[in-house]
Amino acid sequence: MMLTEINFDGIIGPSHNYAGLSPGNVASANNARTASQPREAALQGIAKMHANLDLGLAQGFFMPLDRPDDRWLASLGTNFPDADPYLQAAAMSASSMWAANAATVSPAPDSADGKCHLTVANLQAMAHRSHEWPGTLAQLKLAFAHDAFQVHPPVPSPFGDEGAANHLRLCSSHDAPGLEIFVYGITGGKYPVRQHIEASRAVARYHRLDPARTLFVAQADAAIGSGAFHNDVVAVANENVLFCHQLAFADPELTYAAIRAIMPEVEIIEVPRNIVSLDDAIASYLFNAQLVTIPAGDGPDGGMALIVPTEARDNAAVWGWLEEMVRGNGPIRKLVPVDVRQSMANGGGPACLRLRVVADPATVDPRFIATPEKLDTIADVVAKTWPQSVSPDEIAEPGFVAAVHQARSALLDALDLSELV
Ligand SMILES: NCCC[C@H](NC(=O)CCC(=O)O)C(=O)O
Questions:
Q1: Global pTM?
Q2: Of all helices (H) and strands (E), which one includes residue 245?
Q3: What separation in Å is there between the alpha carbon of 102 and the centre of ligand 1?
Q4: Which residues make up the binding site for substrate (predicted)?
Q5: Per-residue pLDDT tens for 46-71?
Q6: Does 348 contact ligand 1 (Cβ within 6 A)?
Q7: 103 lines ligand 1 (CB under 6 A)
Q8: How far apart are CA 134 and CA 149, in angstroms?
Q9: From 389's CA, which of 52, 211, 213, 304 has a CA 20 to 30 Å away?
Q10: Are 118 and 152 in contact (CB under 8 A)?
């Protein structure tokens, strides 16, 4: 059994649009009502997956969900043509692209029963995301049907759960038992808190985690209030490294001490607020990075790489700090900027677009595992069928709805996944 970290990216769906649906998400608000480019968006995501394969990383993907979500609208007593524009936009959202919010994942070495556990996130804080979970659950049950996994339905209402975006795992290596850190919000000032501690505690119970290696940590109110609606906007972990902003956690010193008490070998790289302000961190998304271990023999000199959005390179304070960090003798040796601007404009960086699953790739349904050839097939379908551009006023047009349906069906056909209705 070879346990490896596999990054599953959400393929950016054909209905990708900027409807400004996420209060507390600065980018979503700033770009509200502008035109989006679904085709370019999806191609950017595919290019990121190609680049990760080139780094020697294991890569998977999830299909876009069926949009508009007619079942959800029916449960609200309406249908797409009759619904008001807000419900139409919420039903049409391509938000399942942000796979970090699909589920929380606890790899097998962390669980008392030796299975890899996944709990689908209920995403109940935002209407347009609250109806993702049935489609996501169906997909995870298919991809992870092997008995190496256990897929759990979401935590019940009213406890909000946003999945892996509020979850950090530290370990000596991916296949060793880890320390799992659940980050929750208390108050977000003017913005909603999305992750509730009761939900985090329930997930830890479902996953049969060892309480001695599980922490529940409050996110700083200032971070949520500045636009860090998920903790992965201000912190990321990989193996023994925690990379975070000074204002990520409500009580940083206590948090670091609690981590060190369980895992003395942890390396905490904290970015000081006087060098990178919270506003710069949120605008550049330097922490919404994929912090990955380059497989031995494949890397420039081994070590870890930080896959950052190009927005981080464009910010002088952020890029200056990052360049100095990689020149030092630390664990992060390489910066890899990737262009995911279409997703970034809705508040989703490289880390939001992926769900990390530590598992034996042989136990995953192979239809969800990426190869360069399969990514080319996906890119081909996208180039032929994804709408080029759409403004929020156009998402209810019958022609657009038909194009969205056709595009997704073409992709499911090409990947032999038509059973995902
Ligand atoms: N992890 C990143 C999630 C980004 C996501 N954006 C959105 O849903 C924007 C949708 C819109 O405004 O059309 C969110 O805020 O949950």
A1: 0.97
A2: strand 241-245
A3: 13
A4: 19-28, 101, 128-129, 194, 232, 346
A5: 999 999 999 999 999 999 999 999 99
A6: yes
A7: no
A8: 18
A9: 52
A10: yes
